[in-house]
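Why do we care about 3D structure at all? Because function follows from shape, and shape follows, mostly, from sequence. That is the central idea of this module. The next example makes it concrete: a single protein chain, its amino acid sequence, and then its structure expressed as tokens.
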Amino acid sequence: MSSRHQNITAQNPEATLLRVRGARQNNLRGIDLDLPRGLLHVITGPSGSGKSSLAFDTIYAEGQRRYIETFSPYTRQFFDRMDKPRVDSIEGIPPAIAIEQSNNVKTTRSTVGTITEINDYLKLLFPRLVQASCPACRRAIQPETARGIVRQITGQAPDQQLLVTFPVGTGDLEKRTPAEFFDFLKQQGYLRIWLGGRIVRADEAPPAEPLPAVVHVVQDRVAASEETRLTEAVETALRLGKGRVIVIDAVTGEAKPFSAGWHCAWCDVDIRPPTPGLFSFNHPLGACPECRGFGRVIGLDLLRIIPDRSRTLAEGLVRPFQSGMAQECQADLVRHARRKQIDLHCPFENLPAADQKWVMEGERQPGEAVHEVWDSGRWYGVKGYFEWLESKTYKMHVRVLLSRYRSYNECPKCAGGRFQPETLNFRLPGTGGESLTLPEIASRPISKLREFLAGVHIAGGDRTARLLHDQVT
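And the structure:
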């Protein structure tokens, strides 16, 4: 054991020293040591030489013990009792703290982001700053208010005449005729609907053609300049339309849908509201349902099943088919390949893609079970063979066999991103108009991520968002 340091005391006699005399803790044998305070000391040596006994069990233990003794008896009862180390004397020791190396990886879900707790801040920051988009049309989604809708309308064309409408389902038209539906509207006090690009009155004869599943009932016809009346009409339409309203230009017939919830008014698609759980792959709400947040799934390792793609079908291309009971599968493969007129002596890597797929997938139809293919005398495929083995995993030797040809593969559903598809509807806007999803942020290098996060805009009044952003950056 050695401690390398400059001879500070020779240069400065007044330098404070930490003096250890006669340290006998654990495997120490009367160690005497002088350490200048205020410097970094490195204790090195082979395993069992007493490094931890000196650093933790002697120096740290005595410094912590003396520090705790400065508290009142009432306060000391809340601390763990520390025994006095076996040492003759220690002088010049200040209060001490110890940082010990430990493995914080608790599960295979753990990443640098979870260990450093950055992910905990991100999942709280995202609901406050993200921008949502429709998974179908990619249009922006933002819960609207009546006043916000009116501001958008009046800012575009303040002089236009508008029809404020809300959607109403016509129900089962096999049991309800258009006349009965019109009578229902009149009972509710509504006489106009927007149908086929024109206004149709409910107090007149209904059209001969059948009604669509949803019609737009006119709440009011109003000029865009009448903001008070327009706001009242939009508020009522949102309430009756269950958070949805369609504003139509009375002249051109151009319709603009709006929604008060996390809903794409153009595609009529709902998205899940942004909550902290949605942005955590350790939460059932945010984890990919296929891999459960691990980013990987256990699947077949094709490199183990077909280790040499230069081999031919006749030479024994598929390794598990070359021994034991599975040799029968090798005979099936050769027999069916002859029937399909596939070249048995051509290297597998040189076969046409369709023939390679036939070897792996077999002749199964969508939704068809493996045993049905077997019973019909068709080729079940290499994957079909392993699927059949999966049904026999109650046998020990089958589980052992499967373990030889399995590996952890990237999850095909989330592409290793760990999050469910609904999480990807939200992106964090950053530098230069760029916006990233949470998996994209997790995969970005630290140097580029710091630059991206520096460009995240936070409204001045949102102190919580600013605090979370500071913790991340």
